[in-house]
Amino acid sequence: MAFGLAAMTAAFKAKQRPLTEGEITAFTARADELVPDDALAQQAVAAFLTDLPIDYVGAGQALLDFTCVWSRIPTPEEVQRTEALLTEDLPSGFDAWQREADHD
């Protein structure tokens, strides 16, 4: 979660303006600290840093898109379905399994 927040912060800043060297250094260090063994996250950070000098807005958007997928932020539809399920009187046993199987 901490990496997601750091990445989103860097992404939103980059979408507004070029990042300072201090911000880039701080974000890189934080990513190395938080997700040192996450190859996908490290690749996203590397791509962000590569694209930043060329197109800081695009680099920020790409990092934001990656972070949303990486952190598995639920879609509005998923949130609505979860809320509906929490308020329903659900069947149990085989009937519950069959009900969910019918949704796919």
- Average pLDDT over all residues: 87
- State the helicity in percent bands: over 70%
pLDDT below 50 for ≥5 consecutive residues: which ranges? Answer: none
**Series of secondary-structure elements, N-terminal to C-terminal:** HHHHHH
Shape descriptor reads elongated
Q: Any idea what the radius of gyration is?
A: 19 Å
Strand element count: 0
Q: Figure out the total of helices.
A: 6
By oligomeric state, this entry counts as single chain
How is the biggest beta sheet arranged?
Answer: none
| Percent strand | under 5%
Taken together, the total number of domains comes to: 1
Structural class: mainly alpha
Q: Compute the separation of the termini in Å.
A: 29 Å
Describe this structure in words.
This protein is mostly helical. The protein has one domain (1-90). The chain contains six helices and no strands. It has helices at 2-16, 21-34, 39-51, 56-70, 76-87, 93-103. The two termini are 29 Å apart. The mean pLDDT is 87.
List keywords for this structure.
single chain, mainly alpha, 6 helices, 0% strand
Helix and strand arrangement:
Elements: H1 2-16, H2 21-34, H3 39-51, H4 56-70, H5 76-87, H6 93-103
